[in-house]
Specification:
Blueprint: H1 2-12, H2 32-37, H3 51-58, H4 64-72
Amino acid sequence: MRRHCAQSSFAQLGLNDVTELYVEDRNESNDRAKLEALEGVQAVFFSGGDQLRIMSQIGGTPIFDPVLEIYKSGDVEH
């Protein structure tokens, strides 16, 4: 149920091409399908508030590199 909630929330903001990507543990950050889901994206949004948990799951893993590049592209407000 939570997966559809975010898509409808973003749709209300005019963002209709949204893909939700869940990384439950560090092993999943090596998943090729998850890495491919980040190809060509313009923004990444992390839900929740525990930044330490997020970084403990993706920091130093293959999924972190494209997320960092998206951030460095300058299109993300912080």
